[in-house]
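Exercise 4. Each item below gives a protein and its sequence. For each, produce the structure-token representation.

Item: endopeptidase La (Wenjunlia vitaminophila).
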Amino acid sequence: MPTVSSRPRILVICSALVTALLAVALLAPLPFSIVMPGATADTLGSQNGRPVITIDGTSTRQTRGKLLLTTIMATAPDASVKLSNVLSAWLDDQEAAMPRSTVYPEGDTEKEITKHNREQMRTSQHEATLAALDHMGLSPRRVKVTLELADVGGPSAGLMFSLGIIDKIQGDGRGGDLTGGRTIAGTGTITASGEVGPVGGVPLKVVAARRDGATVFLLPRSECSQASENLPDGLRLVPVRDLDDAVSALKALSSGGKVPSC
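Answer:
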């Protein structure tokens, strides 16, 4: 048992150890990425002077409004993220700290990750094209769709690509625009059969959508609770399960019909 005179010395040593441990915790890199709202891109518009969607083999139409795909941007995979960065992100609704493995699920180097994301984007564009043409009863053998979008990777733009293709070919089916002239944003993977799947970073994507003028945000139904946490004023969340749901919701918005909500 320590004597009374030795206790202050023990307290000093313990305090020094705790201080050292705290310093290590604050300065040590953690397996997190800091994620922020990224850019948006209008699938009905153009990029670098070229249309995002080009269609051959069937007639197309002039469109009004916008269909914005949304993105997030993250710190580089080899960036040193410290506890102070993570705490700051948790306190800021413009940032989020996410496990690095969920942001960069494949590859060890930035080159490998970029390659993987591009492959996912190509697959997503193919599935989006098949889903859109199937929705309209068109054959992919007769109609060729080219999708071009630089500096965006991953599969989460699938839903918005499909809607862009549909709006360019048939609009709402009644001579009007699928958007109703609005700025519509959204996110979601899509399969060739039109099923819409979940994606990451939705709370930050709604921030990017509202920042760039969107008033409606389409999202997978399973993402409703996350997206509602810090919903910007003036943005309406519309959950969908598949492409048919999304098209029906947009038509209902224009006609004053019943629209699903989170």
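Check: Residues 155 and 259 are 26 Å apart (CA to CA).
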